[in-house]
Amino acid sequence: METVIRKQTSFRLREDLLLALQEQAKKANRSLNNFVESTLMDAVYSRPNEETIAAIKEARTAKHKKTFDSVGSLMEELMK
Predict the structure, then answer these.
(1) Which of 2, 25, 40, 45 could pair with 35 as two cysteines, CB 3.0-4.6 Å apart?
(2) Separation CA 61–CA 39 (nearest Å)
């Protein structure tokens, strides 16, 4: 297993942002460091694969898009 090297650093954050991050970390039962690191990893390394990119493009350019008024009507359509 590859060892992950971590380097200590510091940031200046808005106080309200820091409080929100601390609150979210607590809700997730995680340390602030772990919560921030995983959030940043998701932001930096979350890239959709080619199939997902194609589906996004198709959805954005589709001409006669069907819309739904409720989750129930969407589920009915999906169950057909």
Answers:
(1) 25
(2) 30
Tokens 């069907």 locate to 66
pTM, two decimal places: 0.57
Q: Residue 5 gets which letter from DSSP?
A: P
pLDDT digits (tens, 9 = 90+) for 16-65: 999 999 999 999 999 999 999 999 999 998 888 999 999 999 888 988 88
Q: How far apart are CA 23 and CA 17, in angstroms?
A: 10
The Cα 14–Cα 30 span in angstroms is 21
Question: Is 74 part of a structural domain of the chain?
Answer: no
Nearest CA to 37 out of 80, 68, 8 is that of 8
- Residue 24: Cβ-neighbour burial (10 angstroms; 0-12, 13-18, 19+): middle
